[in-house]
Design brief:
The chain is built from 21 helices and 16 strands. By secondary structure, the protein is α+β, with helices and mostly antiparallel strands. A hairpin with an 8-residue loop joins strand 10 and strand 11.
Length: 605
Amino acid sequence: TRQHFSTKIFKVYLKCIQHHYPEISVEKICEQAGLPFEYIMDETHWVSVIFDRRFTGKCIETTGDPLLPYKSGLISLTQEGMGSLLYHLVKFTLSTTQIYRTISTQSLNFSKVMSMEIVEEGKGFIHIKYRPIHLETLNNEEQEALLGNLDNIYQNTVGYIESVPTIHGQQRAAVKHHRESDPKGVPELHMKVMYGDKKPIYRLVVSILTVGAFIVGFGHVWHDQPIEIMLSEFVLKSLVFGVLSIAVLLFFLAIHFLRQRKIQEEAKKTIDKMDLQYREIQKAKEALKEKEELLRKMAENYPNAYVSIIEKDFTVGFTSGIEFKKQNMNPDRFVGLPVEEVFPEYADIALQHYKDTFTGEECSFEFSVNNQYQLCRTVPLYSEDGSIPRILVVIENVTERKKLESHIQQSQKMEAIGTLAGGIAHDFNNMLYPIIGYTEMMLDNAPEGSDLRENLNEVLVASLRASDLVKQILAFSRKEEKELKPIQMQLIVKEVIKLMRASIPATISIKQIIDNNCGMVLADSTSIHQIVMNLMTNAYHAMEADGGTLTIRLSEVNITVEDSVLFDLNPGTFVCFSVSDTGHGIEKNVIDRIFEPYFTTKTNG
């Protein structure tokens, strides 16, 4: 087996179980963990970190006691845990501080993958650090086992660090412990221990009496007194000297205890001060963490945007934004990627602006992805020394803004058209008055049933339509509400077809699919007339060269709730009018502009 932990540790576990849970078979626990009881009780053996985790887990599972590692630590330095000989040897020869030092220097005799060192030491106070070492010598399974069992290992360590003063009959040490991660992220156990440091006095008493007896005996020999007198006086003087020595010892011991109490008070003040500093540091860390979380939330919920941090090497250091949520994308997958991989189509323009930003210049540019307009803005992020190690990039989806701007421009164009059309309409209306007047006068003189009268009627109808159109233009220019009336669209459509038939070439056939049972609609008849005429005119212009078929459809349709979302209409019955032709169609780059006021594909004139 791999040699990571001494079986001395597990021997104490078994003794702890026997002490607290005598009904449990420790032999069975050993077998379930994978090694025989006799092997573990032999202190010369070593086991692996994998066995350590398995054994500790089995002990806790069997006893149902999650504090078992801590309790085992408490009895580690008792006579039961150490053995009688070693316990009394330590008790009579080492002070409490010396025991802590010995534990620190001898830790590798118990584990080859855990190290203990003294960080700071004072009177009645010691700061000990306990941490994993040599992780690089462990395979993945062993590393996982060690790190996964650290809670139990640290719990056991706190127990026996607390128990050190009990060797000299004192109370347990006050241990304030916390964890800190090393640069590699491995948690270290820091223990700040406050204790009463008691030095063993037994050897001091024996030494004083021995020296006293030697001095008394030497004095008698020096004065060459008889041996029987020497012995009697020796005993008497030794007793007297012993009593005096004990009195002196008690006097100095009282002074020692007073000093020790003062040291403990100072140590307590030191620990409280350090604890206060630690709490302040933790509070500052928590405040910093809250600010970081707040900034992250702000980035995640920045409306219609991607928020990124670009590093000096033009890789993505951080990215977030609500647009990722809309597209069900994980922003973390972009972290660490070069800009060229994130935006391959726009890498050149992006890199150029990023380079300018690293010189201290704020930049912005626009680009389009999947018919979505994006506005990219970059801002330098300065460090304390004035350098720019990274920049902030905000890419905002401005598609809706672009549409709004387009609508505003459209409104402005329509307003300009209205102003222009109003002036033209007045002049045109003035021209129509004599045409209508003379036509009506000629009709009075034209014979009934004659071709002349029929032609004059057509002229009058067209003139009146033109007059209505002028009124419509004037109403548009003044932004007046149109007068909507119930009308039958099929009558207007048929009237326009009859009117347009004479002007449409014979190479173009007109196909009518008109439902005469269509219900009435609320509309302006002049506007409907103009719409039908314009659509038919555009259709026959598309087929003017090669001829074709112009199809006109009019029917009732029912708009469902699902359809209403698509067409932006309320559910119900509507009249559907359509004009189709067999011409060349509308090009893709033109169809998006057909509703612009000034747009046309026709040549001037």
